[in-house]
Design goal:
- By secondary structure, this protein is α/β, with parallel strands linked by helices.
- It is built from 14 helices and 15 strands.
- It has helices at residues 6-18, 73-85, 94-106, 119-134, 174-177, 188-198, 223-234, 253-257, 284-287, 306-321, 324-348, 374-378, 382-394, 415-428; strands at residues 40-44, 47-50, 55-58, 112-116, 138-142, 162-164, 180-183, 202-207, 237-241, 264-267, 278-282, 352-357, 360-365, 397-398, 407-408.
- The longest helix is centred in the C-terminal third of the chain and has 25 residues, at 324-348.
- The two termini are 18 Å apart.
- It binds pyridoxal-5'-phosphate.
- Pyridoxal-5'-phosphate binds next to helix 4.
Length: 429
Amino acid sequence: MKMNRQRSAEVMVRSRKIFPGGVNSPVRSFRSVGGDPIVFSHGRGKYLTDVDGNTYIDFCGSWGPLILGYSHPAVLSAVEKQAARALTFGAPSEEEVKLAEKIQTWMPGLEMMRFVNSGTEATMSAIRVARAATGRNKFVKFEGCYHGHADCLLVKAGSGLATLGQASSAGVPEACVQDTITGVYNSIEGIEEIFARWGGEIAAVIVEPMAANMGLVLPEKGFLEALRTQCSTHGSVLIFDEVMTGFRVARGGAAEAFAVQPDLWTFGKIVGGGLPAAAYGGKKSVMEHVAPLGRAYQAGTLSGNPLAMAAGLATLTAMEECDAFNRLEKTGQALDALVQQHLAAAIRSGRVSFVRKASFFCFFFGSKQPPRNFTQVASTDMNLFNQVYHRWLDAGLYMGPSGYEVGFLSTEHTVDDVERLVRVVAESI
Ligand SMILES: *Cc1c(COP(=O)(O)O)cnc(C)c1O
């Protein structure tokens, strides 16, 4: 069934005149999957409605924040109450303290933190602070991990287990990436090689402890442990970028789920409950380098914005009240069972592989095994993904428009919803 998206198309004609590619963030443009972006009007619970009045079951959740679905009553009411008091102070408020204290009850290792406005700011600042704390310049990231768009993080990998300093974006001077070392995800040998070569110069290792920006790639046993060991041995700061996994993979994030403690964390997405907020924090001995306590400068006019703080606090509180992690795990297990039921033969023949952890899920096409790193992800069948993607849309199921993205379950999804998702895959391949 083809949906009428006339009005979406009309709005996009206007958008393209004003915004580069018609969007305010590139992946929204549908370049990856082909076709035209859908322009949305409103959301309620698991449902998302576009400007033509078509309704979809949403598995994107605005790229992660909406773990409770759209317009959760407790979140809306918290935002409305705060809006009546003030939209911003640019001065301390109790809201930011309340959210920070709530986060600490979920993540006791987080001794000190700071709120910022986006995940990009959080990772950029965490790296600056790690450099300030160690007095070193180099840091390590892994190919396929996304940490936002700060200059020093826009690097591409070459061949081999370690690459130094190649920008992946125009407009990034070589000088900005000359200290960025790129490693291979899940390669213990790779990280050992990097530290053997540059150990004393490495300020930090930043990693998505479960990679969710190249589809879903789980850390293999020993990988995060090796990062921890190398960082501890060489006095480098281990940064877990939990912008995606924080408050979603487990109460204590990936650090708890995979039982490895970083020195610093970065958060975003869920922490703002759908409004722009993010955070970085961790060991007091590192965070004390942040201004005005220390000499690493970092600031923000709207940081700790009371509206975003209220939305974040209401989201975490509602998650506690509805036992969100258990609920999501039950839906996730139902999804696993449905995949086994409808896709077992396709999995055996290597037509598709499926990965799920907590409320994250991902289908890779044309891949016998779930990929372990970016090179393997990039060699999956993205054309087939794109075909399935449009079938999902036609069946009224919305996902992030790229084969390099993951699907998200919310507490609103039922077994019926995930069954529809799996049926479309089974029918498409
Ligand atoms: C989304 C994301 C970011 C960037 O966050 P923005 O708020 O989009 O700047 C950074 N790291 C990870 C792991 C992310 O998923």
